[in-house]
From TrEMBL:
Listed PANTHER family: CELL ADHESION MOLECULE 1, IG-LIKE DOMAIN-CONTAINING PROTEIN
Domain of life: Eukaryota
An example molecular function term from Gene Ontology annotations: signaling receptor binding
Family indicated by similarity: Belongs to the nectin family.
Keywords for this protein: Cell membrane, Disulfide bond, Glycoprotein, Immunoglobulin domain, Membrane, Phosphoprotein, Repeat, Signal, Synapse, Transmembrane, Transmembrane helix
Signal peptide: 1-27
GN (gene name): cadm1a
Protein name: Cell adhesion molecule 1
A GO CC term attached to the entry: synapse
Membrane spanning residue stretches: 334-354
Topology of this chain in the membrane: Single-pass type I membrane protein
Subunit structure: Homodimer (via Ig-like V-type domain). Interacts with FARP1. Interacts (via Ig-like V-type domain) with CRTAM (via Ig-like V-type domain); the interaction competes with CRTAM homodimerization and CADM1 homodimerization. Interacts (via C-terminus) with EPB41L3/DAL1. The interaction with EPB41L3/DAL1 may act to anchor CADM1 to the actin cytoskeleton. Interacts (via C-terminus) with MPP2 (via PDZ domain). Interacts (via C-terminus) with MPP3 (via PDZ domain); this interaction connects CADM1 with DLG1. Interacts (via C-terminus) with PALS2 (via PDZ domain).
Length: 401
């Protein structure tokens, strides 16, 4: 017996007899026992699962492990089942530990640890097989984007168990996607998520990452760098002069334009007018010699690309050739002008106040006389009342002035 192999006919016969005897002796339903413990197992397809049956207080009872079809995988340290993927890891008085390699979906189910006591005790280990999704794939509706336009992307994780979850990141910001879960004919889940957002110029070169969360995989993601076109940003820089633009001086402006695609050229125009005929335009530079007041106006640099057109304006204001030098005199004039204005204003105010005083004095008197006449029973009373009103109006007059 001791030399007999695990699957030998002798062992099988022994097991059969032993089990028959036990079943007869303890013809009760098994009970779920506190004395027997095991754990559920989640395992990735193709990998190894470990099933451990543990006994707390062993009284030398026989222990065995059954598969979901209630066939004996291990009887003590013997394996009647021919599937060599099952191997004994440990057999001691407190544990029966068995490994199952190259797990497949058909291995899923409820495994039973059984202890031959009276009644028999059982504990259940559910094996769940996880199937990782295929590599996530990002499909973008648009290859090249334009600022301000809405775009759409879809990320798909095929055939997993259980269903995967998909998250989106744009740069370091998480964006919400719209998930869709499909159950395929082979009872696998295919999950896709749709992301829509409005593209901005800052998105250029930023990665959009589709992250797949699934218990069978780690750091599973796909990414796509955004390529965003945007219209030019235009800026006029004054190269010369640094101070006031005076008659007779020269003016030099440079136009800087940056866009994607980069604008081929920039254009100088004068708003509502022609650029002075002797102005020199080379590339982005505008050069005008010998400024003249008739050149006043708005000079505009325009740049365009496939996305659109932008411009920047420079307002030229040609000052007298002496402007700036005679500043103190200008200020004197301004101060004198101001003082004169204040004096004139003060006199006007005085005139208005005086005019109002005379007007009000008369008006008030008249009003009170009329009022007194209304209220009074006779003419005498009316006059007394009117005089009272007069006194009041005197007080009022003082208040006003
Ligand atoms: C094992 O999983 C089943 C469901 O499949 C659950 O009812 C049971 O409580 C789990 N057992 C343990 C020990 O987690
Ligand atoms: C089995 O487990 C027991 C207790 O956990 C340990 O002492 C023993 O060394 C193990 N045997 C093997 C072969 O791993
Ligand atoms: C694992 O099992 C699958 C079938 O489920 C089989 O095709 C494959 O050859 C096995 N791999 C190993 C390493 O045994
Ligand atoms: C962006 O949107 C505008 C209208 O909204 C459209 O005319 C243009 O073709 C779009 N650009 C791209 C690159 O899709
Ligand atoms: C400015 O231009 C006008 C004509 O455009 C011309 O008559 C005038 O002489 C010019 N003044 C100076 C200072 O060049
Ligand atoms: C140009 O601006 C100056 C201000 O220094 C003004 O005196 C002059 O009248 C303006 N000329 C025209 C044509 O607007």
């Amino acid at each position: 017996m001791a030399n007999a192999g695990c699957g030998s006919p002798a062992t099988i016969l022994f097991l059969f007899l032993f089990q028959a005897a036990l079943q007869k002796g303890a013809a009760q339903y098994p009970v779920v026992s506190q004395n027997l413990a095991t754990d559920n197992v989640s395992v990735v397809e193709g990998e190894m699962a470990i099933i451990s049956c543990r006994v707390k207080n062993n009284d030398d009872s026989v222990i065995q492990l059954l598969n979901p079809n209630r066939q004996t995988i291990y009887f003590r340290d013997m394996r009647p089942l021919k599937d060599a993927r099952f191997q004994l890891v440990n057999f001691s008085e407190n544990e029966l530990r068995v490994s199952l390699s190259n797990v497949s979906l058909s291995d899923e189910g409820r495994y039973v640890c059984q202890l031959y006591t009276d009644p028999p005790q059982e504990a259940y280990a559910d094996i769940t097989v996880l199937i990782p999704p295929g590599n996530p794939i990002i499909e973008a509706r648009d290859e090249v984007l334009s600022e301000g336009n809405e775009t759409e992307m879809t990320c798909t994780a095929m055939s997993s168990k259980p269903a995967a979850a998909i998250r989106w990141m744009k740069g370091d910001k998480e964006l919400p996607g719209k998930p869709k879960v499909e159950l395929t004919y082979d009872r696998m889940y295919t999950v896709s998520s749709r992301l829509a957002f409005t593209v901005s110029k800052e998105d250029d070169g930023v990665p959009v990452v589709c992250i797949v969360d699934h218990p069978a995989v780690k750091d599973f993601q796909a990414q796509k760098y955004l390529e965003v076109q945007y219209k030019p940003e235009v800026k006029i820089v004054v190269e010369f002069p640094q101070g006031l633009t005076r008659e007779g001086e020269n003016l030099e402006l440079t136009c800087q334009a940056k866009g994607k695609p980069q604008p081929q050229r920039v254009n100088w125009v004068k708003v509502d007018d022609d650029v002075p005929s002797h102005a020199v335009i080379t590339g982005g530079d505008l050069y005008i010699e010998n400024l003249n007041k008739s050149y006043n106006g708005t000079y505009r640099c325009v740049a365009a690309n496939a996305v659109g057109e932008s411009y920047d304006d420079y307002i030229l204001y040609v000052y007298d050739s002496r402007a700036g030098e005679g500043t103190p005199r200008t200020v004197d004039h301004a101060v004198i002008g101001g003082v004169v204005a204040v004096v004139v204003f003060a006199m006007l105010c005085l005139l208005i106040v005086l005019g109002r005083y005379f007007a009000r004095h008369k008006g008030t008197y008249f009003t009170h006389e009329a009022k007194g006449a209304d209220d009074a029973a006779d003419a005498d009373t009316a006059i007394i009342n009117a005089e009272g009103g007069h006194t009041n109006s005197d007080e009022k007059k003082e208040y006003y002035i």
